[in-house]
Write a structure and sequence with these properties.
- The N and C termini lie far apart (42 Å).
- The chain is globular and about 45 Å long.
- Helix content is 41%, strand content 0%.
- The protein contains seven helices and no strands.
- With 147 residues, it is an all-alpha fold.
- The chain has helices at 2-8, 30-39, 47-53, 72-77, 84-97, 110-114, 120-130.
């Protein structure tokens, strides 16, 4: 019932539950795996989340392209620093995995990305996107220790 209520309020799909591990391309670095996993969660390593988390430490929500906030959906579907063919591939894969005709029908949240996480082609596309040289993506953060 809870998922139905959320769907009615604008969510496009119910998360697809699976216990299969993610399939990364051979020789994918741990840093790249971490970046891809970060795209699938609201609490992530991207500027938009970190800025809203602590504005004194992270001073801007913007992507390094400076056109909009650095969110997972921005990086995967809109960022001008990413090759257009990769953006189109990610958009098409997101639409297919979420059973919609076009990405404009998506809620543009982490559930949409999670629903594609078991698709090896989507993971490969994400690998190519997050390793784009022009993108400035954080691989880790160091949070202050609480006393």
């Amino acid at each position: 019932k809870q998922w139905y209520q959320r769907r009615v309020r604008g969510w496009t799909s119910i998360p697809q539950v699976s216990v299969r591990p993610l399939v990364f391309p051979p020789h994918t670095s741990r840093d790249t795996e971490v970046l891809i996993m970060s795209l699938m969660y609201k609490n992530n390593l991207l500027n938009s989340f970190l800025f809203h988390f602590d504005r004194t430490k992270w001073t801007t929500p913007l992507c390094s392209c400076e056109t909009e906030e650095q969110t997972a959906m921005h990086i995967l579907t809109k960022c001008p620093l990413v090759d257009e063919h990769l953006l189109n591939a990610a958009a098409n894969q997101l639409a297919r995995c979420n059973s919609v005709d076009h990405i404009s029908e998506l809620a543009f949240n982490e559930i949409d990305i999670l629903n594609c996480s078991k698709d090896p082609q989507f993971i490969k596309t994400c690998c190519n996107i997050v390793t784009t040289d022009e993108l400035t993506l954080r691989k880790k953060i160091v949070l202050p220790k609480h006393k």
